[in-house]
Write a structure and sequence with these properties.
about 250 residues, alpha/beta, Rossmann fold, 7-stranded mixed sheet, two-stranded parallel ribbon, 13 strands
Length: about 250
């Protein structure tokens, strides 16, 4: 554990980890952006503590696109029976395993898996599914949301940026046949950021509107879908409604 801490402190991280010794990691993102993780964490546990508080030892969790394992670690620290973090980038999995070694978490595991090719039957169902900061980096966000639903036994938390909504009627086949629009997805070009560790791995990203995300989640089988309220002093994108966290429940 001590050797792991020294390795961790020898590099910069995306997250600010407070290590068992009390020392903190240095981040490579500006301090005002690090605050996004504090808001995500507060919203996550505001949703999960009322559901699982007092019986975390019975809870299984999966963090899809776990990055360096920050949120998976927080769930493991709650005493969950099993926490699995998966990520498409090998360097993220390697870093997350180093973090696990520093904390000595036996209920925490990390492995490489790409949301674009993952099959739920290979992983099973989990009480808690996290999909934070992922959907708006994908060329097939609906497929990722379908995977999230298939993995979810109790509740799934989806956190994403959102774009302006589009509703109304559009011609469908001819001018006399029309269909209702239930939301929108915006095409975002991330081709120049493919090498960046927090961006799309393909360069093509479809970012949902809030209404579009909620409609898709309901159609995929979540029995109840709720937009979580941001806490006081939330990161500016949450406060402005440009980024949201949604809880999808399986009752």
């Amino acid at each position: 554990m001590r050797d792991a801490e020294e390795k961790i402190l020898g590099k910069k991280w995306f997250y600010r980890f407070r290590l068992p010794s009390g020392r903190e990691t240095e981040t490579y993102i500006p301090p005002h952006i690090v605050e996004i993780h504090d808001t995500r964490l507060a919203m996550m546990f505001a949703a999960l503590d009322p559901l699982f508080g007092g019986r975390w030892a019975d809870v299984s969790c999966i963090d899809v696109a776990c990055h360096e394992g920050f949120f998976a670690l927080q769930l493991a620290a709650k005493g969950c029976r099993k926490v699995l973090g998966v990520d498409a980038r090998e360097e993220h999995v390697r870093d997350a395993k180093l973090i696990r070694a520093a904390y000595g978490c036996r209920n925490l595991e990390f492995r490489r898996a790409d949301v674009r090719t993952m099959e739920a039957k290979e992983f099973g169902a989990f009480d808690v599914v996290l999909m934070l900061g992922l959907v708006y980096h994908l060329e097939n966000p609906v497929g990722a949301l379908a995977l999230a639903r298939a993995l979810t036994k109790r509740v799934c938390l989806i956190e994403t940026q959102v774009v302006p909504n589009l509703t109304g009627l559009t011609d469908w086949g001819n001018y006399q046949a029309q269909k209702e629009m239930h939301g929108s997805f915006a095409i975002i070009d991330e081709t120049e950021e493919i090498a960046a560790p927090e961006s799309s791995v393909s360069g093509i990203s479809l970012c949902p509107s809030k209404d579009g995300l909620l409609w898709v989640m309901r159609r995929l089988g979540f029995s109840r879908v709720e937009v979580l309220p941001p806490p006081e002093g939330a990161y500016e994108q949450f406060a402005a409604g440009k980024r949201i966290m949604v809880a999808g429940f399986v009752d």
